[in-house]
Automatic annotation (TrEMBL):
Cofactor(s), by name: Zn(2+)
Name of the protein this chain belongs to: Heat shock protein HtpX
Gene Ontology molecular function terms on file: metal ion binding; metalloendopeptidase activity
One GO CC term, this protein: plasma membrane
UniProt keyword annotations, A-Z: Cell membrane, Hydrolase, Membrane, Metal-binding, Metalloprotease, Protease, Stress response, Transmembrane, Transmembrane helix, Zinc
Annotated membrane topology: Multi-pass membrane protein
Pfam families tied to this protein: Peptidase_M48
Biological process terms in GO annotation: proteolysis
Length: 365
């Protein structure tokens, strides 16, 4: 692996104690909600709430505890845990991208984390960490990003996501985030006009959970940004943040107008997008960056600080020395990027299947 030495000390992280305390508070809300729901439901049943429940049972509208709570005016959120076999993209084998596996292993060691059990090549220009069960963890890498980033920028993106895995952001905090989101959905879809102590309890827990979750998510993003900047350097991390923010809506726009069935002569989606990106004139890219940065304060969300604030943080870190390999296209970490592009294109559009990953390079690896 060429480029900066990832074993050098990264910059300090922020908000460790505050994030931990807020996380404990959010976990307490998550535990308290079903307990309060159960105690409140039994209390209401004892003082006459059994009447509507009995009526619902006679009408075959009550068949489980969640139906009982619903008849009493409460909600029982259902948190849907991500399916590890869901199609986030094919799982890469080491033979498909040996340099990528080496990079991830070195960064994981530097972050103090076990390397993820899976590297998945995602269809969209995103990069993320996901976890399921006790030990299941995967790193998702969007193929379109590899056409836009260079290798040191990719290192910054990978370091950011591995920092989330190292600190448990993809497990404990993600579970609490799913609880808050599920509770919000349950309240939105519940019958309107119901006045019930259980409904009030649900609104109280949602309000507390939301107030605790937003600072946690933002603090985790800032912490991961700092780790990435300490590993890849301030300018490379800032450049990666801007490129990722630019390419995501652009790729979706291209995808919305791309139809291989109506124009059989078109190259595959990823080759088409790469050609589109490379043809963009530099003045236009500069104007797009300026527009992105000028609009960024209004585009912040509950989970991410404004882009301009993130850039301010990462650019306070020194740059790392770069080798020619670091400045080469990120897609060079793949063993056979053209074949992987075609395979992902075929999977996305349901065309004639190609062999999955690990078939292309096994003989020569």
């Amino acid at each position: 692996m060429g480029g900066a030495d990832v074993d050098r000390e990264a910059g300090p992280t922020i908000g460790g104690l505050g994030l931990h305390l807020r996380g404990l508070g959010l976990g307490a809300v998550e535990l308290a909600f079903p307990i309060g729901n159960t105690l409140g439901a039994w209390a209401m049943l004892a003082v006459g709430g059994f009447v509507p429940v009995l009526g619902g049972w006679l009408d075959d509208r009550v068949g489980c505890w969640a139906d009982v709570v619903s008849r009493l005016g409460g909600v029982c959120p259902s948190t849907i845990v991500g399916d590890p076999d869901a199609d986030h993209g094919p799982v890469l084998g080491r033979a498909d991208a040996p340099e990528l596996f080496d990079e991830v292993r070195a960064l994981a060691r530097h972050a103090g984390a076990r390397p993820p059990g899976q590297l998945r090549l995602s269809y969209l220009p995103c990069c993320g960490a996901t976890a399921w069960g006790r030990n299941g963890r995967a790193l998702l890498i969007g193929l379109p990003l590899l056409s836009v980033l260079n290798r040191i920028e990719l290192r910054a993106v990978l370091a950011h996501e591995l920092a989330h895995l190292a600190r448990g952001d993809a497990t404990h905090s993600a579970r609490s985030a799913r609880f808050v989101e599920a509770l919000g959905r349950a309240i939105e879809t519940a019958p309107r006009g119901s006045i019930s102590p259980l409904r009030g309890w649900a609104h109280l827990c949602l309000g507390l959970g939301s107030r605790l979750l937003s600072p946690i998510a933002r603090g985790q993003e800032a912490r991961a940004d700092r780790f990435a900047a300490g590993v890849a350097g301030g300018d490379a991390t800032a450049s990666a943040l801007v490129k990722v923010a630019l390419v995501q809506p652009m790729f979706r726009e291209v995808l919305g107008h791309y139809d291989p069935r109506s124009s059989p002569g078109l190259p595959n989606l990823y080759a088409y997008f790469r050609s589109f990106w490379q043809r963009l004139p530099e003045p236009l890219l500069v104007a797009m960056r300026h527009r992105l940065l000028s609009d960024s304060p209004g585009r912040s969300d509950a989970a991410h600080p404004a882009l301009i604030d993130r850039l301010t943080i990462v650019q306070s870190y020194p740059n790392r020395s770069c080798s020619p390999v670091d400045l080469s296209p990120a897609e060079s970490v793949l063993g056979d990027p053209l074949s992987l592009e075609q395979m992902l294109h075929n999977r996305l559009f349901g065309l004639a299947p190609m062999p999955g990953p690990s078939i292309f390079h096994r003989a020569g690896s």
